[in-house]
Specification:
It contains two helices and no strands. With 67 residues, it is mainly alpha-helical.
Length: 67
């Protein structure tokens, strides 16, 4: 019998917001950046919630932002 171990990516830091004001500000920044994203692609993004989430997590982690 053989077993295969799947590699998992784990992140030690959680994305958190200390207030609704901070979350609102992050959503506004994501909305502005997403508007620029849609201008670059020339199309509406039906998966915008995924893009917003990736943007907000990357912004808070200080990693590369989605384009």
């Amino acid at each position: 019998m053989s077993t295969t171990r799947l590699h998992q990516i784990t992140h030690s830091a959680a994305t958190t917001f200390s207030s609704s004001t901070d979350l609102t500000a992050a959503l506004i920044r994501a909305a502005i950046a997403h508007g620029e994203h849609e201008k670059r692609t020339g199309a509406e993004d039906p998966n915008w919630p995924l893009w917003y989430a990736a943007y907000m997590v990357a912004e808070q982690a200080g990693t590369e932002l989605p384009v």
